[in-house]
Amino acid sequence: MKSPLIMDNLPKRFGFRPGGRAALNSLAREIAPGRGVGLLGRNGAGKSALLHIACGLLLPSSGTGTTVERPCGELDAPELSPIGFMPQENAFLAWMTVRQQLDFTANFDPAWDRAREQRLLDDLELDPTRRIAPLSVGDPRKLGLILAVCHHPQLLLLEEPMSALDPIVRTRLMAFVVDLLREDGSTIVLSSHLLADVEKIVDWVVVLDRGELALNSALDDVPDT
């Protein structure tokens, strides 16, 4: 099985001047298939830029990125189907109920798994009859996860998935992601500020620091400091 995510000499700069702010500095990295990867770093380290390039929401300033064997900038409907993405800030149709948003999204993907959807609604205690606009802070995160995984993605990108969730829901979410690795054989990349948020899920750790690759290691080999 080929790598679902390859970054080759991949910088990303914001601004039109040559010295524009760098989010990534010529990053080179290949994610092995079937792996759970923790993408760690402080705010501004480049985590979001990397994930957004991987799913085609941003274009690299130069270099090449390949997602599910397709250049990141050329992802279209057929290539997006094997990708699941949970952004840190979801853009839902606020006037819809949770059920309407789920049905709306499911209509675009014949692989949508209603049994998985219901399991997650139950496990995450998300009421499908509620309107999206007044949902509490953690509930949109739950909905974002359900929308990202119910089509059985080959590559799952989770941006700060644990933020705004209470400890009980965090535990349930982590258990589900572990099940997902086993059930679908998905490659999963989870970004976080803290190793503690992802260490029970991942087997590999990538640390970014100001756009540079600071660590690329098996979880068991990560230094205690």
CATH level 1 class label of one domain? Alpha Beta
CATH topology (fold) name of one domain: Rossmann fold
- Give the distance, in angstroms, between the N- and C-terminal Cα atoms: 34 Å
Shape call: globular
* Strands in their spatial order, largest beta sheet: 6-7-8-3-9-10
Describe the structure.
The protein is α/β, with parallel strands linked by helices. The chain has a domain of 150 residues: Rossmann fold (3-Layer(aba) Sandwich), CATH 3.40.50.300. The protein has 6 helices and 10 strands. The strands form 2 sheets. A 6-stranded mixed β-sheet has the order 6-7-8-3-9-10. A 4-stranded antiparallel β-sheet has the order 2-1-4-5. Strand 4 and strand 5 form a beta hairpin. The longest helix is centred in the C-terminal third of the chain and has 18 residues.
Looking at this protein, list some descriptive labels.
single chain, alpha/beta, Rossmann fold, 225 residues, four-stranded antiparallel β-sheet
What's this, in brief?
By secondary structure, the chain is α/β, with parallel strands linked by helices. The protein is built from 6 helices and 10 strands; from the N terminus they run βββαββαβαααβαβββ.
Helix and strand topology:
Layout: E1 5-14, E2 21-31, E3 36-40, H1 47-54, E4 64-67, E5 70-71, H2 77-80, E6 83-86, H3 98-106, H4 114-123, H5 139-149, E7 155-159, H6 167-184, E8 187-192, E9 204-209, E10 212-218
Parallel strand pairs: 3-8, 3-9, 6-7, 7-8
Antiparallel strand pairs: 1-2, 1-4, 4-5, 9-10
